[in-house]
Amino acid sequence: MVVTYEKKGNIAVFTLNRPEARNAISHEVSSELEKHLEEFESDDDAWVAILAANGSVFSAGADLKSVSSGKRIETEKGGFAGLVRYPRTKPLIAAVDGPALAGGLEIVLACDLVVASTAATFGIPEVKRSLIAGAGGLFRLPASIARNVAMELALTGDPITAERAFQLGLVNTLCQPGSVIENATELAGRIVVNAPIAVRESRKVVLETHGCSDDDGWDITKEHFRVVLKTEDFNEGPLAFVEKRDPVWKGR
């Protein structure tokens, strides 16, 4: 398998598993990752996922051998890697323990949160090969870090270190090499203690209100709050507080 999938409690873990090819994205990788995303999204007991990679490189981007052979490396639903355009509803954490370059960075940008070790680097070097970052990097990067810094990465093609990515706000947690899964699991654990539907609706509001006016922000917030109001967990939260116990979320 070029992508593995496992679940530990309410946390799922996807792992890119082509270390010999620097986890480059082939037709098979895109197909398998999308299949696992479908499984994750349809599993009511899977609330948060982590995307990691085996080997010393998170992902070097597109598999040019696969491209040159005429195979599509994008899927119809998810696009590049079966992920960058996939209509997810649940949080996804990138666990980066090596270079994430070109499409590798675009995979990271498609995630909601990023845990990276000091061994990680981030870049979109496509211009060095007379290409452009066509899997979301050119609009998601300036939405994640300062526009001028994103422009620097896009026009020079030069990568930045994990330390600089952390300072710029691209990385949530910076850790030592070899500990990204542990740190990503800790971050996921801080999410799964919360009501899963409230988490998903909060995620939607953050994404949908980016760059919008306050008036639109109020409308969007109200729309998603109505969804939370209708859940069983909405009653469980206050009840658990009054009874001085941990809430038992049902995700419905």
Give a structural overview.
The chain has helices at residues 27-42, 64-68, 103-110, 137-144, 147-156, 162-168, 180-192, 196-208, 214-229, 232-242, and strands spanning 3-8, 11-16, 48-53, 74-75, 79-80, 92-96, 99-101, 113-117, 121-123, 160-161, 173-175. The chain is an alpha/beta fold. The strands form three sheets. It has a six-stranded mixed beta sheet with strand order 1-2-3-6-8-11, with helices on both faces. It has a three-stranded mixed beta sheet with strand order 7-9-10. The protein has a two-stranded antiparallel sheet with strand order 4-5. Strand 2 (11-16), helix 1 (27-42) and strand 3 (48-53) form a beta-alpha-beta unit. Helix 3 crosses helix 4, helix 4 (137-144) runs antiparallel to helix 5 and helix 8 (196-208) runs antiparallel to helix 9. The longest helix has 16 residues, at 27-42. The protein is globular. The two termini are 33 Å apart. The mean pLDDT is 95.
**Largest sheet geometry:** 6 strands, mixed
Question: Cα distance, first to last residue?
Answer: 33 Å
Number of domains: 2
Q: Beta-strand percentage?
A: 15-25%
Structural class: alpha/beta
Q: Which ranges are low-confidence, i.e. pLDDT below 50, for 5 or more consecutive residues?
A: none
Radius of gyration: 19 Å
Question: Would you give the CATH topology of the largest domain?
Answer: 2-enoyl-CoA Hydratase, Chain A, domain 1
CATH class of the largest domain: Alpha Beta
Morphology: globular
Identify the strand order in the major beta sheet. Answer: 1-2-3-6-8-11
Helix and strand string, N-terminal first?
EEHEHEEEEHEEHHEHEHHHH
| Total number of strands | 11
Q: How much helix, percentage-wise, in residues?
A: 40-55%
For the record, the CATH architecture of the largest domain stands as Alpha-Beta Complex
Mean pLDDT: 95
